[in-house]
Write a structure and sequence with these properties.
globular; 18 helices; alpha+beta; about 20% strand; four-stranded antiparallel β-sheet; binds serine; BirA Bifunctional Protein, domain 2; nine-stranded mixed β-sheet; about 40% helix; 4 domains
Length: about 575
């Protein structure tokens, strides 16, 4: 059965069971700059899970385009994907465990024809927050799953929540037995050996978790389910990896024909990242140096690097995109209507990357030089990390390059730095998922420093009487209100923008000092509401043009900011103008 047939069967099955089919929400959440990408089918439905009335009723089904990038560095193995499609059915205060399980069982065994012997299920074992889910186990038994294939696990396995706060509850997961030999006498669904593959998750959402109040019961009980389409397709077709299904096969084959170097891992990375980038671009994504733009950039660059590694001419990209659109057009017609844009964005980004690659190689040459001077034959972890973070060099490329010159790389130091970095980005995406902004993350920190630069530039260009009247920062942009009696002319705007960019180009250190409030004011430090500050204050200075009382945080050097761009200048209130600006690279 092809993926599209599974999708259609699913939607029609739930339609026949009283569900309304709704379209997939875009991969880029609408009107929500605080969330990076749609990562689960329930995400666009959160208001309705919390009790708002859904216009289509209480039974909903859909396919949802999802992107999860926490494990982006794992792509290339036999299972990880960043982009995937999740099929889901929802009860918004309608049916609960019995009916949900009966429908799941019927769909798997009757519609998809999976033999009951292939299925195992898991249920929540209970703890101090919620009781053992015996009812769910009973429902499975009634449906036809024998007791010995019903397992109970704790919160780590059988509880679902997006992030740290939000609607949540015990879940029951369905597993498919691939027929592999058990890895030992204790082999069971929770085991990672590959015998059991999770195919579907039913979450019984009847709690809300808040950091403040812990778990409380929701107004209504909901069911949230998620079935990964690529994985199901692979299993039903008896394929070993999603890359062997019709979703990837044509591109994988073409890559194999074109490649001069044989690497299945690189072929998978190219195929996977190409598909994911195309889906993001079709939904309006653009590469940049922050947040979702950065994710897209990383996907495209990683793909380009692996095309290089395979020694495939990068001019093939356009044909590969066409081939991919051809493969996926029935499932995602938006790829066809965005063909030109997809090509333009990917090819432009690839070109930019090729330039960075040259710079990265220069940086690498410097590191070799330094190591030689110090009589070392090892490239340190900091350098490997910098090459990875700034120039998109994976450690394996650095290792290859190093080896050619008779050097080794210090992977253990790199691993430590990399783990810290991964942990940070994981925390970041979790935080973003729940909609709350990590206020002091890297992006907002950069915008915070840009705010000081803008303030100083306005004073130089427009006049000393310009004073800050307010500011607001999101991960997407900064907003700055200032006293000014006229609309800025095009020329003024340009000068302000140029000046900020000049300061960024000069890579000026940002310094911080603690001092008495009165001394700070005497020294000419700016501040918006003097009474708001304690007696001892921190003062941030940049060059000799910016000095502000401020709690921080700020970047260490203006060079970290990227390109500053004024998007809009408008009236805010009488005598107050407002600038919206962004940082990009
Ligand atoms: N929200 C759950 C998941 O993502 C079920 O849809 O697995």
């Amino acid at each position: 059965m092809k993926a599209i047939e599974i999708r259609n069967k699913y939607l029609n099955f739930f339609k026949a069971h009283g569900h309304q089919i709704i379209p997939s929400a875009p991969l880029i959440p609408e009107n929500d700059p605080s969330v990076l990408f749609t990562t689960a089918g329930m995400q666009p439905l959160v208001p309705y899970l919390l009790g708002e009335k859904h216009p289509e009723g209480t039974r909903i089904t859909d396919f949802q385009k999802c992107l999860r990038t926490n494990d982006i560095d794992e792509v290339g193995d036999n299972r990880h994907l960043t982009y995937f499609e999740m099929l889901g059915n929802w009860s918004l205060g309608d049916y609960f465990k019995e009916e949900a399980i009966a429908m799941s069982f019927e769909f798997l065994t009757k519609e998809l024809g999976i033999p009951v012997e292939k299925l195992s299920v898991t249920c929540f074992a209970g703890d101090e927050d919620a009781p053992r889910d015996n009812l769910t186990a009973e429902c499975w038994k009634k449906a036809g799953i024998p007791e010995e294939r019903i397992y109970f696990y704790g919160k780590d396995d059988n509880w679902w929540i997006a992030g740290e706060e939000g609607p949540c509850g015990p879940d029951t997961e369905m597993f498919y037995d691939t027929g592999k030999e058990p890895c030992g006498p204790d082999c069971q669904p929770s085991c990672d050996c590959g015998k059991y593959v999770e195919i579907w998750n039913n979450v019984f959402m009847e709690y809300y978790k808040s950091k403040k109040d812990g778990y409380t019961k929701l107004k209504q009980h909901n069911v949230d389910t998620g079935l990964g389409l690529e994985r199901m397709t692979m299993l039903l077709q008896g394929k070993k990896t999603p890359f062997d299904t019709e979703l990837f096969e044509p591109v994988m084959k073409r890559l194999e024909e074109l490649a001069k170097v044989d690497s299945i891992e690189s072929r998978r990375i190219v195929a996977e990242h190409l598909r994911a980038s195309m889906m993001v671009i079709a939904d309006g994504g653009k590469p940049s140096n922050i947040d979702r733009g950065y994710v897209l950039r990383k996907l495209i660059r990683r793909m380009a690097r692996h095309l290089n590694k395979l020694q495939i001419d990068l001019s093939e990209l356009s044909n590969l995109i066409d081939l991919n659109i051809d493969t996926l057009k029935e499932m995602y017609p938006e790829l066809v209507s965005h063909r030109d844009e997809i090509k333009q964005v990917i090819i432009e980004e690839k070109d930019k990357f090729m330039k960075t690659l040259v710079n990265g190689e220069k940086e690498f040459a410097k590191a070799i030089q330094k190591a030689k001077q110090e009589n070392k034959n090892v490239i340190d972890g900091q350098t490997i990390f910098k090459l990875y973070e700034t120039y998109g060099f994976p450690p394996e490329i650095t290792a290859d390059l190093a080896e050619e010159q008779g050097f080794k790389i210090d992977t253990s130091e790199f691993e430590t730095l990399f783990k810290e970095h991964q942990e940070k980005s994981r925390m970041g995406s979790e935080q973003k998922f729940k909609g709350g902004l990590a206020e002091q993350n890297e992006v907002t920190t950069a915008y915070h420093t840009a705010t000081h630069l803008l303030n100083a530039a306005l004073k130089k260009v427009v006049g000393k009487d310009v004073h800050q009247k307010g500011s607001n920062i999101t991960v997407e942009r900064m907003r700055f209100d200032f006293s000014c009696d006229h609309k800025l002319s095009e020329e003024e705007k340009q000068q302000v923008e140029d000046l900020v960019n000049e300061w960024i180009r000069q890579e000026i250190p940002v310094t911080v000092q603690e001092m008495k409030k009165e001394d700070a004011i005497k020294s000419g430090a700016e501040c918006m509401f003097i009474e708001k500050y304690p007696d001892i204050v921190t003062v941030y200075s940049i060059g000799d043009f910016s000095k502000e009382l401020c709690g921080g945080p700020h970047v260490k050097n203006t060079g970290e900011l990227g390109k500053f761009k004024i998007k809009k200048e408008e009236a805010s209130s009488a005598g107050v103008r407002r600038i919206k600006a962004i940082l990009e690279k």
